[in-house]
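Async update (no meeting this week)

Hi team, since we skipped the sync, here's where things stand on the single-chain job. The sequence we agreed to prioritize is pasted below, unchanged from the tracker. I ran it this morning and attached the output directly underneath so nobody has to dig for it. Comments welcome in thread, and please keep replies under the output.
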Amino acid sequence: MTQITTKKLLEALEEKYNSIGQNKDVHLEGLLHSKTMNYWDYIHTDALLNLQIQRTNLPDEMVFIGYHQINELIFKMILWELEQVAQAEILEVDFFADKLMRVSRYFDMLTSSFNIMKEGMDVKQYNKFRHTLTPGSGFQSAQYRKIEFASTELINLIDARFRETIDRNTPFEHALEHLYWQAAGKDYKTGKKSILLKDFEDRYKEEFITFMKVYNTKNLWSRFKELSEEAQSNPTLIDAMRHYDYTVNITWVLAHFNAAKHYILSSSGDGEATGGSDWQKYMHPKYQKRIFFPELWTAKEIENWGKNLD
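Output:
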């Protein structure tokens, strides 16, 4: 590889700093006083390893905390990829497909990693320390909700019972009240919300509404529909979109469901989720039929979504 000469490097630095009204020499002098970079400072290893704070003295609670923190870091990486698709000024098919497959690989990793939970914690320990988490729940992952908002048209996240009453003119706050996951924390007959849902909304409601507004026209499906008819027919892109949809809404969800079933329905479990939700109907894809791109699936595929996969 051809090395840049010192002269050319200095000229490039001069041009860079001049363009932002800065003095190149001041920045170069700063290098004389800066520390040498090392792995632990760059990754902030000490800070990262001090974020696992247990509520009990049960050893396997550490597995539970560390695992979920890793999940949130992966969710952050997924959102990073989705944002690039959303913000691309000119969206190329290869770029779009590549980003979809990147995100699918993250979810593939998350799916296989559930064995860490399923096989890596003592059931008796879990069913002791989990009661200290009530009413907290993985349901309250704001980043996962944002992944959903960034992936599909909002109507596809509305509880099926209310989709006919909601369209693009519906206020976002009203739509939020009828998202599919509200069913895990609301009695629709009385309208009463569980503390699980109330705490979640108190923390994230305004943030969600802002995010929903941004991705209302920037989600994956909206960006797909901006492409030419030829691009929308590209088999590689269609395969990538279908793969992503299936990976997130069936493969990953079922792995999560089966891990929860292993602990919550074990002989020492009480069948109740920490947040008090009807977790089986909330989590299993055959009930909610969460589908990001329903137009890319046949009527029969949608009808059988998640069935016979317990």
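Quick observations from my side:
The CA atoms of residues 153 and 216 lie 7 Å apart.
The chain has a mean pLDDT of 89.
Reply here if anything looks off.
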